[in-house]
Write a structure and sequence with these properties.
With 230 residues, the chain is α/β, with parallel strands linked by helices. It contains nine helices and eight strands. It binds pyridoxal-5'-phosphate.
Length: 230
């Protein structure tokens, strides 16, 4: 079932690319594997997935040694500063940088380890307080401020759109994130690329691809519903 689902999501991404006149190679499907057992991740891996997203540091650290080393691990969840040190050198991309203090910690630990860590700034486009991101003007100020930190490289922006019945309702959210990334790109900030847009989940990834997503993060659409009580 996981392999079929993975294929189906991939096909839908391809169709959305065709519709929008984009290259399929420019969109990466991140398999969101939080709460799922390693055996499920292995199935997704065998189906072709090489990008996995987790939202808890401990869970990611437990899974990494149990799976092939060519996997790119994405931290997509709210990150506590005291957990940053475990991620450095292991994580491919941190999607959820939402404060100067968190960026400072990633910078400090990366410099200590002699690496540069790729990050995205999480933007709360829709203004939902529960999502930990920051509003667009605040996010722009955040990007400008942390761009000068050593040991980090800002690759772009990420957003978690609200849960909606009709994915069309989130089109404006995705457009806003894209516009913001273009505006920031025009500022030519140091250590900043603005080539990456992480947006779109199971309910709305096709719309996100149409609006320019380069990473979509899909969990339920590949593994089925999550059970948080196990
Ligand atoms: C859980 C999660 C996803 C995946 O959500 P689905 O609706 O299961 O596809 C994507 N992004 C983030 C940040 C998440 O926490």
């Amino acid at each position: 079932m996981i392999a079929e689902n993975y294929q189906e999501v991939s096909n839908k991404i391809k169709a959305a690319c065709d519709k929008a006149g984009r290259e399929y190679e420019d969109v990466t499907l991140i398999t969101v594997s939080k709460t799922k057992p390693v055996s499920d991740l292995r199935e997704a891996y065998d189906a072709g997935s090489r990008d996995f997203g987790e939202n808890k540091v401990q869970e990611m650290m437990d899974k990494i040694p149990q799976l092939p080393s060519d996997i790119r691990w994405h931290m997509i969840g709210h990150l506590q500063r005291n957990k940053v040190k475990y991620l450095i050198g292991k994580v491919y991309l941190i999607h959820s940088v939402d404060s100067v203090r968190l960026a400072e910690e990633i910078s400090k630990e990366s410099v200590k380890a002699g690496v540069v860590t790729d990050i995205l700034v999480e933007v709360n486009v829709a203004g939902e307080e529960s999502k930990f991101g920051t509003g667009t003007e605040e996010s722009k100020a955040l990007v400008r401020e942390i761009a000068k930190f050593p040991g980090i490289h800002i690759k772009g922006l990420m957003t978690i759109a609200p849960y909606v019945e009709d994915p069309e309702e989130n089109r404006e959210v995705f457009k806003a994130l894209k516009k913001m990334s273009e505006e920031l790109a025009a500022e030519n900030l140091e250590n900043t690329e603005m080539t990456t847009l992480s947006m779109g989940m199971t309910g709305d990834y096709e719309v996100a691809v149409e609006e320019g997503a380069t990473f979509v993060r899909v969990g339920t659409g590949i593994f089925g519903e999550r059970n948080y009580n196990i």
